[in-house]
Write a structure and sequence with these properties.
The protein is of the alpha/beta class. It is built from five helices and eight strands. It has a single domain, classed as Rossmann fold (3-Layer(aba) Sandwich), CATH 3.40.50.150.
Length: 190
């Protein structure tokens, strides 16, 4: 796993010894960031990376010019690896790591609301997508934590079909690669 573009292009990321994460491939990450680019993201923007693992998406955003990233990861061993990656990339000042369950806290607001939020929970947690499911509840909370016109990206198994709307978030795009899919939601006007 590595950063594929921007200031830290080619930098290899540390990974946990035990394979507890689902790393995103370079090809999928490149495609995802090409999609985000057409929405003016992530350069100069506030980003949150939930269920971030070793920080692949958030670090990619920083490498491509994001203003700052809040990383939320529950596993203490994975968080330790994440911190090493942030230090290696030289993004300590632009990063904040919160060790918590993102389903419980969402994307904690530090300075201002987020322009871009990555949501990448374990696939088992994305099977139930109803309004009252943990994922549905999280997306409703995020609809209030994202800035006007902000984007939320949900990575899940390709069989997972999110509802059209969660709170003020509405699906605007869905892409599929192999066994995974990415759903992009945007904050709709009230």
């Amino acid at each position: 796993m590595r950063i594929i573009a921007g200031a830290k292009r080619g930098m290899k990321l540390f990974s946990p010894k035990a394979q507890v994460s689902r790393p995103i491939t370079d090809r999928v990450k490149e495609s995802l960031f090409s999609i985000l680019f057409k929405y003016g993201l992530p350069s100069g923007k506030m980003v949150a990376d939930l269920f971030c693992g070793v920080g692949s998406l958030g670090l990619e955003a920083l490498s491509r010019g994001a203003k700052s990233v809040i990383f939320v990861e529950q596993d203490p061993k994975v968080s330790a690896v994440l911190k090493k990656n942030i230090e290696k990339a030289g993004f300590v000042k632009e990063s904040k790591v919160i060790r918590a369950d993102a389903f419980k806290i969402g994307a904690p607001i530090d300075e201002q609301k987020y322009d871009l939020i990555f949501v990448d929970p374990p696939y088992a947690c994305t099977e139930d997508v109803g309004q009252d499911s943990p994922l549905g509840g999280l997306l409703k909370v995020l609809s209030e934590q994202v800035s006007p016109g902000g984007i939320v990206v949900v990575r899940a198994n390709r069989r997972t079909e999110l509802l059209d709307r969660y709170g003020r978030l509405q699906i605007i795009e869905r892409r599929q690669w192999g066994t995974m899919a990415v759903t992009i939601l945007k904050q709709a006007s009230r």
